[in-house]
Design brief:
Strands 1, 2, 3, 4, 5, 6, 7, 8 and 9 form a nine-stranded mixed sheet that branches. It is globular, with a radius of gyration of 17 Å. Strand 6 and strand 7 form a beta hairpin. By secondary structure, it is of the alpha/beta class. The longest helix is centred in the last third of the chain and has 27 residues. It has eight helices and nine strands.
Length: 234
């Protein structure tokens, strides 16, 4: 049950910490794929890991394009996404894969802690288990899923149509909405990711553009979820 951990990288000073946390997983059947999205800074931090990872470099195209490039190279049954400024808890893959196999899950997400630039814990964020319909309603209000907590079947991501490269800031939100048309997203209430909050993160630098894309995703899937609900009733 190999897991492909894909790390999109673009000018991020924390890339070495992300790669190290992926390689230190207690679950050993993994491959770590770092997709350099045309970086001009901090590339040297990847060099010490080159013999232990798959590394590809491409022209800058955004997170969705980097994830898709990694997925094309992935050989694992499962896909996990790790942002270059975040950190996996050492037992993340082992705990989550075991949970998914125990309930027959195709995609799941977990709780997480936020950390600052110095790795100090700031907060702890939990969701809750809910029905597929309740989860869809919640998605229309905002994104309750931290993308780096997700593990999904690689073939499932490809089946629903890859990440939308037209979306530069909400490609994860749109993907979770799309997946909910095909299957449920299961929740494991364990903290397995450390999510870094810092001034250079995309949600801070590109706030207005994220709001526009979020509104687009909500309009799009409001009608899709309604149609899916009507079909289920029939």
């Amino acid at each position: 049950m190999k897991v492909s951990i894909i790390i999109p990288f673009y000018n991020c000073a924390y890339i070495d910490q992300a790669i190290n946390s992926a390689l230190r997983q207690t679950y050993k059947d993994i491959e770590v794929i770092v997709v350099d999205d045309g970086s001009t800074q901090y590339v040297e931090k990847i060099q010490p890991f080159k013999s232990k990872i798959k590394y590809i470099r491409k022209e800058n195209g955004g997170t969705a394009s980097a994830l898709n490039a990694g997925l094309r190279l992935a050989t694992g049954r499962y896909f996990a996404w790790l942002s270059s400024d975040d950190v996996f808890v050492e037992s993340k893959i082992a705990r989550q894969v075991a949970y998914m196999q125990s309930i027959g899950s195709r995609v799941s997400y977990t709780a997480f802690k936020t950390i600052n630039r110095n790795n100090k814990i700031v907060d702890e964020i939990h969701s809750r288990k809910m029905s597929r319909r309740s989860f869809q309603k919640l998605l229309l209000k905002g994104c309750p899923v931290n993308g780096c907590t997700v593990i999904a079947e690689t073939d499932l991501i490809k089946q629903v149509g890859w990440f939308d490269e037209r979306l530069k800031y909400t490609q994860d939100y749109e993907m979770w909405c799309r997946l909910c048309l095909y299957t449920r997203m299961d929740y494991l209430d364990e903290v397995l990711v450390l999510y870094r909050v810092h001034p250079q993160m995309g949600s801070i630098k590109h706030g207005p553009n994220m709001v526009k894309e979020t509104q687009y995703v909500q309009r799009k899937y409001s009608s899709f979820f309604q149609m899916a609900s009507k079909k289920k009733k029939l």
